[in-house]
Design goal:
Blueprint (H helix, E strand, L loop, with lengths): L9 H26 L4 H23 L3 H11 L3 H25 L2 H23 L5 H23 L2
């Protein structure tokens, strides 16, 4: 197991609490938007410009030379702009699929699928990269897979 790290200060606690509230607000807001019959594509259309307006200033403050580095990489690597567009397309697709899964199932199903994805990624990394695994890790992912299976079974029975 990992050692417990205590919260060291009140400002650190408020940062953790803020992150938690924002995460929960994101899930609730997405559910509310999808329940108001807003199409997933339109939800992304309206959210994206607002996200840019919020994140761009934050990126410029936290990483002052980000534009310079991006332009420099674009000049050095001929496929950098193609990769950037491909990355953006993949991020858009991931967000859209999250909205669609939430719309057609539930936010809980989306979280369970996220746990299943983590377990699959670990198993694949073990087989491909021969990453070492501890007994605690195996036990944890076994519990995760058992939980995913139990959730699927419960959902199937109570339909």
């Amino acid at each position: 197991m990992v050692p417990l790290q205590p919260i060291k200060s009140r400002p650190q606690f408020f940062k953790i609490a803020t992150l938690s509230v924002v995460f929960c607000g994101s899930v609730v807001g997405g559910n509310i938007s999808l329940r108001e019959k807003l199409n997933s594509m339109n939800l992304m259309l309206y959210m994206s410009p607002i996200a840019v307006l919020v994140l761009l200033p934050a990126a410029l403050v936290m990483e002052p030379n980000v534009l310079e580095v991006t332009l420099s990489l674009g000049r050095q690597h001929k496929y950098m702009w193609v990769l950037l567009v491909l990355n953006s397309t993949m991020a858009y697709s991931a967000n859209l699929s999250n909205f669609l899964v939430t719309k057609h199932t539930s936010a809980l199903t989306l979280q369970v699928l996220g746990n299943a994805k983590g377990a699959v990624a670990v198993v694949i990394s073990i087989f491909i990269f021969r990453n070492p695994v501890t007994f605690v890790g195996i036990a944890g992912y076994t519990m995760t897979v058992a939980g995913v299976v139990a959730y699927g079974e419960a959902k199937r029975r109570f339909r």
